[in-house]
Batch of 3 targets.
Target 1
Amino acid sequence: MVRVRYAPSPTGTLHIGGARTALFNYLFALRHGGRLVLRVEDTDQARQVEGSETAMIRGLASLGVVWDEGPDVGGAYGPYRQSERGEHYRRAAAQLLEQGRAYRCFCTAGELEDERQRQRQQGRPPRYSGRCRELDADVAARRAEHEPYVLRLRVPQQGSTVVQDLIRGTVGFENAQLDDFVITKPGGTPLYNFAVVIDDAQMAITHVIRGEEHLSNTPKQMLVGQALGLEVPAFAHLPMILAPDRSKLSKRHGATSVEEYREQGILPQALANYLLLLGWSSPDGQEFMTIAEAGQRFDLARVQRTAAIYDQKKLEWMNGQYLRTLPAAAVAGAALPFVRAAGIDLSQGPTLTAAVELVRERSRTLRELVDNMRFLYQAPTTFDRKGVQKYLAEPVASERLRALASTLFTVAPWDHDHLSQAFDQVAEHLGVKRVLIIHPARMAVTGKTVGPGLFEMLAALGPEKTIRQLNRVADLLDRAEELPLSPALD
Ligand code: GLU
């Protein structure tokens, strides 16, 4: 039975790297009919952020990741928070001490720093010298004095520890390079490389799938596992996610947390789909997939070793595709919070679903979508600068808008084809090409130079609002008033 886990530390929001790791674990579990465990790694009290666990759980759930066991759903291998598993770590530490596989180290931070200084001066790599390895006689006395100590693992000085990584192949580490690392802090708090091994074994984890930044921890965890006589799981390290310039991904490349993507107006389905392509590709080259579909095809052998490059443009493009293909009512539901935030009063225009159908072809995010539908509910208060210069600056502009308004007054039924004919008539009457009517009309009614087809838009807007807005802008132009300009978007 395949058992995998996603093990976040609740130190902030759900970052896309973590979300991708969770997703790949879930896909692997789906593919093999296994189980996904959510484990909260909260031993480092100082780094914890209040509310982080809840935020992470919400972020994961929004992406469609479903775990079988975890702090919120329980399970047979709990508890699932490290802070509640102290007993297990204490027992394992006692076992290692008793068997001489770990030892107490009383070195102070100052002493260790002096040691590293000396090594650097001698041109040697700084590492723990092992000077508390054989303190035997001293230990009782120093403990009686309540001198604080840490526990260190007694790492074999020879040989190597070899990771058989399911993605990266064989990766060897010289044991001599891994000094006797600390497994518990003074007071007995377990460190990550210790606790994780005990948890993975006790939770019967078969495969550890996680980010490449943990590859260097793996030999340490294998050594801990061996010292405790535990079965070591299989390992698979996912490639890093880098920015297009191959630098570390940061805020300036776009959002980095799942929460921020939601605020930007990225649909969770689109984000999940995009994330599952960050390092994995489907054998048939298919890019658009639900998680369930990806779960049928997922294979660690198709996870790349080279870094995955994050591309915000592609994410937005994918999101645009989702906006276009999901049922309009589902998009409307997702858009509703943005509609509210934009102060749009839905009673002043068509249903939200109808508005979505009208503008979704041209929108990449829910924000854009809502911005593009705003004119249906409220007359534009600002106008695109370039559009004003290009289409409304000529003295004849107001005359054309008025001519159009009076012709539109007679249009019945008010639909695409009749509107189109009316524009033809006006153009003929004024002796100009039709586009010279269309562009100023679009600017007057929406404040923008681009958008869905004008006749569809006017059909949705209705005669009263259309005619009123054409005349209103004509008035403003005649009075030579400056049209209020919208802040440049592009
Ligand atoms: N708590 C670790 C992290 O958030 C998990 C590492 C692991 O998967 O072993 O990076």
Note: The mean pLDDT is 94.
Target 2
Amino acid sequence: MAMIAPSLLSADFAHLERDCRTCLDAGADFLHFDVMDGHFVPNISFGAPVLSSISKAVPAFYDVHLMLTDPLDYLPMFLKAGASMITFHLEANSPVQETIDAIHAGGAKAGVVIKPATPAQAAFEWLDKVEMVLVMSVEPGFGGQKFQPAALEKLSALREQAKKIGRPDLLLQVDGGVDRTTAPLCVAAGANVLVAGSAVFGAADPAAEISFYKGL
Ligand code: DX5
Ligand code: ZN
């Protein structure tokens, strides 16, 4: 069964608490929190103060996706704000092992993320050091983009490699353009955590949408 992590980027920020509760009541496993710095990606979203408020109001597993040029510098504030897991990009500037170690030392789970142009093999050396790998199926920065099918081969390659090194439990997440059509393909390719923003919050019935993904 797949896990579902609705992306709060597509929530109604005027009713963030309500939208988080809707997701959790419908069985969402993680709440995906997209942080953008206007530098690593050409967009700005929300930061640690928002995470701090929402994680206090709505206790949950907060899956924080850092789209930052220097993620290592910003870990303390997100750890303090209630991040349960922090993922950061291999394309960013921070030293990878040091960043993973700092996330773990802060008591959170750690993950690495690859953009569409980065091959799956770039993440192979980190598979035994992290709890999750995130494959971006769109260019990071914006919700509502079209799924790039090349992500499917990357998911398969990562799932195969994870099995090979004795990590069948590895969380393999896919993010971008996940909907009722693309989600089953992602699960078949080896993904077990689905991020969905516009598909969940743009649906007439977000709870029904979440149930659909959980059933995959
Ligand atoms: C994009 C973010 C995604 C985004 C996904 O940079 O990382 O999490 O919210 O949105 P959808 O599901 O609409 O593609
Ligand atoms: Zn994301």
Note: The first helix runs from residue 16 to 25.
Target 3
Amino acid sequence: MSTRSVTSHRILDGKAVAARLRAELAGEVAAMRQRGTHPTVAVLLVGDDPASQVYVRNKQRACGEVGIGFRLQRLPTAATETDVLAHIRELNADRTVHGILVQLPLPRGIREAACIQAVAPEKDVDGFHPLNVGLAAQGEDAFQPCTPLGVMRLLAETGIPVAGRHAVVVGRGAVGRPLADLLVRAHATVTICHSKTRDLPTLTRQADLLFACAGVPRLIRADMVQPGAVVVDVGIHRLTDGSLCGDVDFEALRGVAGCITPVPGGVGPMTVAMLLANTVRAALRAG
Ligand code: GUN
């Protein structure tokens, strides 16, 4: 872990940290393959959501780079829940597959909860299965979701302390809730804000560490941030002109925040790196 101290107006380069982690994982995977285990993840992609196709391609490239096996199973938009569940069960039974990821969102009519619950908990590299969510809540060993893990790892690797600091999480969804839990476990004092929060700016201005995971483009403006705060942007949105932005107004904040993650190149690559780490872990556990 890096011991660099926090300097002002620093860009938290998730892309560079993730590249380092991938290099470490590549060594681990090579050793496992020599011992006869080839860590492999299967991704089930249903339909043709454009963002999902980009994310899956990024995961495939990252797996290739570290030597993790990648099996892509594509199903058409017209696939039924029964079709998807049958594929998941097949992957559950396949001993050469260590991790299973059902790319979300799923087409209308297919229940995400049913698909998540169908994945064998020991192959749930997304950390979404209720058993893993429950074990994590009890502080037990469990797969945890890749984005919150990636955020925590980025803070650790860039030498940003968490214990004793006030963390404000904006968003209570699939990222915000588990992230808040990890922050509490890391001894932060945590405030969770959401769409019904009254006077959001007053709360966000109290943050030493501010996490934007509301899914609203450029929700966090410069006047909502304490000068010097650490700002982590979990959002990613494609604007009508084709450019990408996050939940944070990056250009306005970069002169105010002490440290800030860019979009793209911040949390996204860390999420993918944690998927690789979870897959290696699943393969190690499977023996
Ligand atoms: N869609 C967007 N992010 C994710 C993720 O982390 N896991 C899955 N399965 N689908 C996603």
Note: The first helix runs from residue 14 to 34.
